[in-house]
Backbone:
């Protein structure tokens, strides 16, 4: 990989060349943070063992926690580097991206997970967008085929977890989590590029089922709905990663918002746009949303205002709202700017050479199970970098 200082100078030079107008203070801050991200991901690449993918970082022991390619977060590492190359107009990370994609390739045939959108579209999808390649297309189509095997025609939904031992149901349980809305983008892509409408039909059916059974009257979402796989009947509406079954787990609200923005983009059906706006209004106007717009890990956490924030939820919400603003005459953008100002501050952005190479601090993975609490998260980095890239695009 190129020396960091070479890549940083290249990045700065290209950024300056690309500016056709005076940048706002926020845009300048974004440029600074993107440069920090370049440094951090160069550093992280030197720490990763071959075939491993970053998950989080333990500050006390200065140790990266990593995974193999089968973990749901495996696609975010190459996806983040692809966005950094896009932002700089360079190929500074290409060698590391290619290496990462090579280790991910076998997951195209993984039918044991619903997370192939995260794993394969956030990696190969972006790689193909920036550098169209028949091999990338083949891998993405196979990934969509694998995801489609998890579709249940009775419930009209894609199975999430194969088992969830905390549930009180039986062997006929079909577990669907709100996170699964994020995997539908892969199916739409596959329909367009294969000519097979079945992929898009699965995505639409899943989104409609989720609208009906995951959401309460106020447009907050349950984390998990359990269906009878034989009849499609709803058996339970619960949560696993939030505070309580009736609470609003922040990242769950973020996944749903992002997912329905994608649904509108791909179908142009106004019902999805209206639904996304209603979710956005619920989040932004919640009485427990802090003024700096970075949410607590659960909007109903019992120890607010002392509850931990979840920067990853903030990053996902910011990215989704930026796209939603383009369908809403700029509405939501002022709130996004407050959110980004906070997330890009020293409170949340790591100093160069710290945080194990991650960019964003203070994520909350799974509070009830006490895993990945107040720590960097690979998807937090991915969606923050995506939000920064999207913001600069609509401003320029």
Residues:
């Amino acid at each position: 990989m190129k020396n960091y200082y070479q890549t940083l100078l290249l990045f700065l030079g290209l950024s300056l060349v690309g500016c056709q107008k005076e940048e706002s203070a926020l845009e300048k801050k974004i440029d600074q943070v993107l440069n920090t991200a370049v440094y951090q991901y160069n550093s992280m690449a030197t720490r990763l063992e071959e075939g491993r993918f970053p998950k989080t970082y333990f500050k006390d022991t200065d140790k990266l926690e990593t995974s193999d390619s089968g973990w749901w977060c495996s696609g975010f590492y190459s996806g983040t580097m692809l966005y950094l190359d896009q932002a700089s107009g360079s190929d500074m990370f290409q060698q590391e991206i290619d290496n990462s994609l090579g280790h991910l390739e076998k997951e195209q045939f993984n039918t044991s997970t619903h997370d192939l959108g995260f794993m394969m579209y956030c990696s190969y999808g972006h790689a193909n967008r920036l550098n169209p390649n028949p091999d990338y297309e083949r891998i993405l189509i196979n990934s969509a085929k694998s995801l489609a095997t998890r579709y249940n025609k009775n419930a009209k939904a894609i199975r999430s977890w194969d088992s969830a031992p905390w549930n009180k149901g039986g062997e006929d349980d079909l577990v669907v989590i709100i996170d699964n809305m994020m995997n539908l983008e892969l199916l739409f892509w596959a329909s367009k590029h294969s000519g097979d409408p079945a992929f898009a039909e699965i995505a639409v059916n899943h989104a409609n089922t989720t609208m009906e059974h995951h959401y309460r009257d106020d447009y907050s979402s349950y984390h998990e709905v359990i269906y009878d796989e034989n009849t499609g009947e709803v058996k339970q509406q619960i949560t696993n990663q939030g505070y309580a079954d009736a609470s609003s787990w922040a990242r769950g609200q973020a996944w749903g918002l992002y997912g329905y923005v994608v649904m509108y983009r791909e179908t142009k059906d106004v019902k999805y746009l209206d639904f996304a706006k209603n979710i956005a209004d619920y989040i932004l106007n919640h009485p427990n949303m802090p003024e700096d717009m970075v949410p607590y890990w659960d909007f109903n956490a019992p120890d607010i205002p002392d509850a931990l924030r979840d920067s990853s939820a903030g990053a996902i919400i910011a990215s989704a709202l930026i796209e939603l603003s383009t369908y809403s005459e700029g509405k939501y953008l002022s709130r996004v700017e407050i959110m980004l100002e906070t997330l890009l501050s020293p409170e949340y952005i790591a100093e160069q050479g710290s945080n194990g190479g991650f960019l964003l601090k203070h994520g909350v993975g799974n509070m009830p199970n006490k895993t990945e609490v107040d720590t960097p998260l690979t998807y937090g980095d991915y969606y923050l970098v995506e939000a920064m890239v999207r913001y600069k695009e609509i401003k320029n």
